[in-house]
């Protein structure tokens, strides 16, 4: 019961993490907050320039040229006797203002086109993409020089042009994200709800692209400031108004007389650019942090919540619930002569409060020529049990207790090399998703031949002959053609047959099938089940069939073990278990099925379900 | 007999194929079906049968290349913009995947009140209605302040159902609404669908690959195969004594959760396949 209640305490915590808006995310990352503070301080100083300075930045006084820092001129004066501090503060108006203008133009164009091209796709997308590629191909600096040659050195004009040249970056970024979001079902649902286009784009799409735009803009800002200051430094800017680039240009002329003049505009540029880069990077880190946390907590919340869902009907009240939940005697029986024998298996994953067991003392055994169904709902630990037997637990997970024996060989504690030689020959695996278990970049033949050569030491020719024979055996009409195909060229049912061929090729003693037909159509499922039955008889294998489908169990299995919350609650032959289920959970599962129900009547007894679900 | 609520006539949907002058791929090849007010019509078929495309065409999310879709006497095959939004009051949807069909950034209350506000309801009125909707799908009243990720698959599907109910539609297209759910959760969501239909008299176009689910919920069943209707008729008739060969294959391939009867069904299926291959 404690496990079932856990989400009640876990959910609010994760909820507050998720509910953090962009603003509080920035605040919670010290680097982002500090760099943003520095930027804000500089921008404020530049805006309030008249209040902070006592000298006009353009008024020269030859008598006061090249003075060092003094109480009157805090940073000294330049070669024309102008106050350096005033010029730095006023110069920021040109440098930062120009950069801001370029970014605004780039974003106004790029985000808008990206939004529409990504959302609508088609001809609009292709034509905008063409223009965007053209802009990327243009040499930016040449264009800026041409603009200067034609219309003179106006910083606002050149930054507007530069903004247009920067737009493709924003366009591509936004387009890529939007075309992904566009296929999300919640956008379809919004359309069906009768939302107008502007509302869909504003409420559902823009939210997804907000943060990436900010990050990209911060980094693009560095580029803009660099280019703008570079032009001014080369003397191509307007020399009548101060900017940090112009100041560097003048400092260069007097480098030998007053090297200190280089320092101040250099520091200004360095601090702004560093702050922008750190802000962009730390914001990205703060946001990238989120999917990791989210994935972990959703999957656990999902699992625990489904557990919650699952226990509800069988749980009229906690007292009866606790009493009725003890496993049915015989639940931990391991038959004599089992070729696979698991006793007291525990699998744990690290969590916030120590190791958390997802498999909690599972015992089961399968003899040669026998098929055991391991059945349960999501979160029951059935797949974790299968992975533990194969020694293929995902990172973090490990066997924390119990023993696993395959054909007399004890598994936990076996070296990686020894385990590898067991896989395929002693124990083999058929996965749930046939397509994602074939490597798309290699031909099917190669993927079948390689393990045969490694595990059985066959020559290339023998391995190919055996692979073709296996493909023929699993009912593939044209083995040679499939052998030469890439995975995307065959159907899901064919792919599953290929994986079955690969799994049984080395004559394993034990075959673990993890929901092997769940991803398949029902007519294909029937054929694959027939195939598994034949192969199992032919090779006299012990099979563990992990499934959530009682129909599949009834069709294929000799015995069945029902799992719930990491434990087996009942184990028996299929005939007895289906005819006379003992455990309330087994009964509830069988009752939830649609067999022999009067159509259009309630499936479950009405229970105070809202109260139960509210426990989440 | 009154005119049906939804009439799909000779519906053809084609999608363009990439490449120079390649013919478009024809996903639906002339579909005829109808749904009466308050009725559940089950659409069953395997992957590639076009069942989801029919639902999307009715919702205006898939193109109608030929034929027509009539709703409540109005041709809705090619509506766009404001006219389509007007129809959306009456035709709603519950999608298969409860994990991507709710915007992860919005609270449940925002998700439920958005369509109401769009249709011109005041904020206060919408909020009040949200409480009623949550109650109707048996979610706790405080669910509104939470985000989708705090809920399990079954509960999210309840939220999706509540969103569909918000506009008090006449028809809900249910696209595999229970196939991502565990068995016991599926049973409770199916019960909810029945309960809502009893209370509101809404009609369902219920799409599923699972013959048992469709049989349980539907008045009439339509069997699809590769974009064509194989058989349509009374649910009990189609799912127990199918006339069509494909429907029979589909029925025989669905395993029964009973080892004794399943052995019998398997033998019948193998015998059927043997006669089919010799014939």
From TrEMBL, chain A:
GO terms for cellular component: plasma membrane. Belongs to the binding-protein-dependent transport system permease family. Coiled coil: none annotated. It is found in: Cell membrane; Membrane. Its main location: membrane. It is a multi-pass membrane protein; Peripheral membrane protein. Keywords: ATP-binding, Cell membrane, Membrane, Nucleotide-binding, Transmembrane, Transmembrane helix, Transport. GO terms for molecular function: ATP binding; ATP hydrolysis activity. PANTHER family: DIPEPTIDE TRANSPORT ATP-BINDING PROTEIN DPPD, OLIGOPEPTIDE TRANSPORT ATP-BINDING PROTEIN APPD. It comes from the Bacteria. Residues 290-327 are annotated as: Disordered. Residues 310-322 have a biased composition (Low complexity). One of its GO terms (biological process) is transmembrane transport. This is ABC transporter. The keyword ATP-binding applies. The chain crosses the membrane at residues 31-52, 96-121, 141-165, 213-236, 256-280. Pfam families: ABC_tran, BPD_transp_1, OppC_N.
From TrEMBL, chain B:
This is Peptide ABC transporter ATP-binding protein. GO terms for biological process: transmembrane transport. Keywords: ATP-binding, Nucleotide-binding, Transport. PANTHER family: D,D-DIPEPTIDE TRANSPORT ATP-BINDING PROTEIN DDPF-RELATED, TRANSPORT ATP-BINDING PROTEIN. It comes from Arthrobacter psychrochitiniphilus. GO terms for molecular function: ATP binding; ATP hydrolysis activity. Gene3D superfamilies: P-loop containing nucleotide triphosphate hydrolases. Belongs to the ABC transporter superfamily. SUPFAM superfamilies: P-loop containing nucleoside triphosphate hydrolases. It holds the Pfam family ABC_tran.
């Amino acid at each position: 019961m404690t496990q079932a209640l856990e989400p009640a305490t876990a959910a609010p915590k994760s909820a507050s993490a998720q509910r953090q808006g962009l603003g509080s995310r920035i605040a919670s990352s010290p680097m982002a907050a500090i760099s943003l503070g520095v930027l804000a301080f500089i921008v404020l100083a530049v805006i309030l320039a008249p209040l902070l300075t006592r000298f006009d930045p353009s008024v020269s006084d030859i008598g006061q040229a090249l003075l060092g820092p003094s109480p009157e001129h805090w940073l000294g004066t330049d070669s024309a006797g102008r106050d350096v501090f005033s010029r730095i503060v006023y110069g920021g108006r040109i440098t930062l203002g120009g950069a801001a203008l370029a970014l605004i133009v780039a974003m106004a164009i790029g985000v808008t086109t990206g939004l529409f091209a990504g959302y609508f796709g088609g001809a609009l997308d292709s034509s905008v993409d063409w223009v965007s590629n053209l802009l990327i191909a243009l040499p930016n600096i040449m264009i800026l020089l041409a603009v200067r040659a034609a219309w003179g050195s106006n910083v606002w004009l050149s930054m507007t042009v530069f903004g247009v040249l920067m737009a493709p970056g924003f366009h591509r970024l936004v387009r890529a994200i939007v075309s992904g979001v566009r296929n999300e079902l919640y956008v379809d649902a919004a359309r069906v709800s009768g939302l107008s286009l502007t509302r869909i784009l504003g409420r559902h799409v823009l939210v997804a692209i907000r943060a990436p735009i900010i990050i990209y803009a911060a980094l693009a800002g560095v580029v803009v400031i660099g280019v703008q200051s570079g032009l001014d430094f080369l003397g191509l800017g307007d020399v009548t108004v101060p900017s940090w680039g112009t100041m560097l240009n003048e400092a260069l002329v007097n480098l030998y007389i007053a090297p200190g003049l280089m320092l101040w505009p250099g520091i200004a540029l360095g601090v702004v650019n560093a702050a922008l880069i750190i802000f962009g990077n730390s914001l990205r880190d703060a946001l990238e942090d989120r999917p990791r946390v989210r994935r972990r907590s959703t999957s656990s919340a999902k699992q625990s919540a489904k557990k919650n869902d699952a226990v509800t009907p069988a749980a009229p009240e906690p007292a009866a619930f606790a009493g009725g939940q003890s496993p049915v005697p015989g639940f931990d029986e391991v038959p004599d002569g089992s070729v696979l024998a698991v006793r007291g298996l525990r699998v744990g994953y690290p969590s916030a409060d120590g190791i958390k067991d997802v498999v909690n003392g599972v015992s089961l055994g399968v003899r040669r020529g026998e098929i055991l169904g391991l059945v349960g709902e999501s979160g029951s630990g059935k797949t974790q049990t299968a992975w533990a037997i194969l020694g293929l637990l995902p990172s973090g997970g490990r066997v924390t207790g119990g023993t696993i024996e395959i054909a007399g060989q004890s598994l936990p504690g076996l070296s990686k090399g020894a385990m590898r030689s067991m896989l395929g020959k002693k124990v083999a695996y058929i996965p749930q998703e046939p397509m994602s278990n074939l490597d798309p970049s290699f031909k099917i033949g190669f993927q079948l031949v390689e393990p045969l050569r490694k595990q059985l030491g066959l020559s290339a020719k023998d391995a190919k002959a055996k692979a073709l024979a296996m493909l023929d055996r699993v009912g593939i009409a044209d083995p040679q053609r499939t052998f030469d195909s890439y995975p995307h060229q065959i159907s899901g049912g064919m792919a599953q047959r290929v994986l079955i061929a690969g799994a049984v090729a080395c004559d394993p003693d034990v075959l673990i099938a993890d929901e092997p037909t769940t991803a398949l159509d029902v007519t294909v499922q029937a054929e694959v089940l027939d195939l598994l039955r034949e192969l199992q008889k032919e090779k006299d294998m012990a099979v563990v069939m992990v499934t959530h489908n009682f129909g599949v169990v009834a069709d294929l299995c000799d015995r069945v073990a029902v799992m719930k919350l990491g434990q087996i609650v009942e184990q028996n032959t299929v005939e007895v278990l289906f005819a006379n289920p003992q455990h309330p959970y087994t009964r509830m599962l069988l009752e939830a099925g649609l067999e022999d129900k009067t159509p259009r009547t309630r499936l479950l007894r009405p229970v105070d379900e809202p109260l139960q679900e509210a426990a989440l | 007999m009154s005119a049906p609520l939804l009439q799909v006539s000779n519906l053809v949907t084609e999608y363009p194929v990439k490449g120079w002058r390649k013919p478009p791929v024809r996903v639906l090849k002339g579909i005829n079906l109808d749904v009466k007010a308050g009725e559940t019509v089950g659409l069953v078929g395997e992957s590639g049968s076009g069942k989801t495309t029919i639902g999307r065409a009715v919702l205006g999310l898939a193109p109608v290349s030929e034929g027509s879709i009539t709703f409540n006497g109005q041709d809705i095959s090619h509506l766009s913009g404001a006219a389509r939004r007007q129809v959306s009051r009456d035709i709603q949807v519950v999608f298969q995947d409860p994990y991507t069909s709710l915007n992860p950034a919005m609270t449940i209350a925002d998700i439920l009140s958005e369509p109401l506000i769009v249709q011109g309801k005041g904020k206060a009125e919408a909020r009040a209605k949200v409480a009623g909707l949550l109650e109707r799908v048996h979610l706790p009243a405080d669910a509104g302040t939470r985000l989708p990720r705090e809920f399990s698959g079954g509960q999210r599907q309840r939220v999706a159902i509540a969103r569909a109910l918000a506009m008090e539609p006449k028809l809900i297209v249910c696209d595999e609404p229970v196939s991502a759910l565990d068995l016991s959760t599926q049973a409770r969501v199916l019960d909810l669908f029945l309960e809502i239909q009893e209370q509101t008299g809404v009609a369902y176009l219920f799409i599923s690959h699972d013959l048992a689910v469709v049989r349980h919920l539907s008045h009439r069943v339509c069997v699809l195969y590769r974009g064509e209707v194989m058989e349509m008729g009374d649910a009990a008739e189609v799912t127990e004594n199918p006339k069509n060969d494909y429907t029979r294959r589909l029925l025989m391939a669905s395993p029964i959760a009973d080892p004794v009867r399943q052995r019998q069904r398997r033998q019948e299926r193998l015998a059927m396949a043997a006669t089919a291959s010799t014939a």
